[in-house]
Amino acid sequence: MHNLDIFLPEAGFLALLLSLGVNVLTPLATWCGMGLHWRGVMRLTTCGAWTAFTLLLLAFAILVSCFLTSDFSVVYVAQHSHSQLSWGLKLAAVWGGHEGSLLLWALLLSGWTVLFAWRSRHESDALFPLTLSILSLIMASLLLFIVLWSDPFLRIFPPAMEGRDLNPMLQHLGLILHPPLLYLGYGGLMTAASVALASLLCGGFNAATAWVCWRWALPGWCALTLGIILGSWWAYCELGWGGWWFWDPVENASLLPWLAASALLHSLYVSRQRGSFRHWSLLLAILTLILSLLGTLIVRSGILLSVHAFALDNVRAVPLFILFCRVKSGIACSVRLAGTGAVSGDAFGRRKVRNAHSDDAAAL
């Protein structure tokens, strides 16, 4: 091992910290820029999204490197890998446990954010930088939890001589594709929900906003559908999991957002074509976001027992619950501001909105 390789886990943790800082500062700078009517606010928000994504990609690449090189000085690698695993299973083992799966989710959500930023780079409407700010705050909440309670780069001294190996039930092709597809689906649906929330704060939900939401909800729904189908096939192959569908909490945790998203797509289509069902579309978008987060809480916290549970930790249940409540409070704040008329299409930068968001960021 080269001298510089010794510090790779520390570099990965530093990248996580920097990404957390960028995701906190970007919304603050965006809101200040919009309050001052600065025309370059979209470029600023896009730059923040790309910076955060690059740092997360670096952290994830370092974790992958630790697995491929069997660096058993890292606790997470020692718990979920073995020197004799094939490189494909070593790669899948990166998200085979609690810490790595959350990091993968943060990376994919950040990927959706930069994709949204790139597709919206020429837009001048306040909806788009505000959507990016909401996504940044969600990622900041997730990264804060990872840094404080789920550090994938935690060291062990002296290093373990050999890893504990990956759970035999997870040594399957399904592990390579199933979790990434689910997280891709959650990311797309969260992007659509963020657009809906942003519309509450900058002029209201209309047919144009419904079209933007639909464009991002559809690929997310497709990815989630493929993930659920692949998970069902995996459960069929693994005899201990009860066949195609066992109706246990882990399986239902992905089914509920899918059901809400299916209804959302139909409602958004009607809102786009006829201008009706706007309130239903908003409600379903928020419900999809909440169910996606609730599914993660159920699966990762160990609140409910499941034959599929492999990346849970009872100790982290309370912080996960706080994270879930934190995002819900942010949603409630946005709905309350919109409902009281604190914001409108021509007065985005009013003091009341800036103060509410500043308080929200400070609480984060």
From TrEMBL:
Organism domain of life: Bacteria
One protein family per Pfam: Cytochrom_C_asm
Entry keywords, A to Z: Cytochrome c-type biogenesis, Lyase, Membrane, Transmembrane, Transmembrane helix
This protein's GO CC annotations: membrane
Gene Ontology biological-process entries: cytochrome complex assembly
Record-level Gene Ontology MF annotations: heme binding; heme transmembrane transporter activity; lyase activity
Domain Cytochrome c assembly protein, chain residue ranges per copy: 95-301
Transmembrane region(s): 12-38, 50-78, 98-118, 130-149, 183-204, 216-235, 255-271, 283-311
Family from the record: Belongs to the CcmF/CycK/Ccl1/NrfE/CcsA family.
PANTHER family, alphabetized: CYTOCHROME C ASSEMBLY PROTEIN-RELATED, CYTOCHROME C-TYPE BIOGENESIS PROTEIN NRFE-RELATED
NCBIfam families: PRK10369.1
Name of the protein this chain belongs to: Heme lyase subunit NrfE
Gene expressing this chain: ccmF_2
